[in-house]
Design goal:
Layout (H helix, E strand, L loop, with lengths): L1 H20 L12 H12 L8 H4 L3 H53 L4 H11 L4 E5 L2 E5 L35
Antiparallel strand pairs: 1-2
């Protein structure tokens, strides 16, 4: 904590020195006062400062340095804000674009389904074999009504099986084993 106080006292001393000997101690009478400086800096940062008045700022070098640093910081901050705003707008637009693309794709599919005959639709449903149970592993028969997609065993490593398997009959009268 003492090191923090020591550093903060040096910081305060530095700020006091800059304020006493820096750009606030100037001889420019037309820029005397805090509100005039704030108004002038605002006009400079917005590009509304008259070009003829820049000559008076260059007469005193510390004022010119302070104004240049301020303008640089303002433009860096404003540029970062612009980039952040554009990034946010792009992300929102991209999400909307994806949603509209999905809606358009669904609309095309629904329109095409109207043109499919009942015989073709029935043949398509029969080719899916939704009545047959799925096979999880060899000899491990699952539920019907799905489409099996095989993937490599190392595609998603599972260290603990989430399906609890119990041997024995599956009669409703038989109680579940205790864990």
């Amino acid at each position: 904590m003492a090191a923090f106080r020591h550093r903060s006292s040096h910081s305060c001393a530095f700020v006091r020195t800059v304020l006493r000997t820096g750009s606030l101690n100037h001889t420019l009478l037309e820029y005397d006062g805090v509100f005039i400086w704030v108004y002038s800096l605002l006009k400079i940062s917005l590009g509304m400062f008259p070009p003829s008045s820049y000559a008076t700022l260059t007469e005193y070098v510390p004022v010119l340095v302070a104004v240049s640093v301020f303008v640089t910081l303002v433009f860096v901050v404003l540029l970062n804000l612009l980039v952040a705003q554009l990034t946010g707008a792009y992300q929102t637009t991209f999400r909307d674009m994806q949603g509209y693309a999905r809606l358009n794709r669904a609309y095309v599919i629904v329109c095409q389904l109207d043109q499919v005959t009942q015989k073709s639709w029935s043949r398509f449903l029969a080719s899916l074999k939704l009545e047959e149970p799925l096979e999880f592993n060899e000899g491990d028969i699952g539920v019907p009504g799905g489409i099996q997609i095989l993937e490599p065993a190392n595609a998603s490593t599972v260290t603990e099986d989430s399906i609890k398997r119990y041997g024995g009959a599956t009669a409703p009268s038989m109680p579940w084993p205790e864990d």
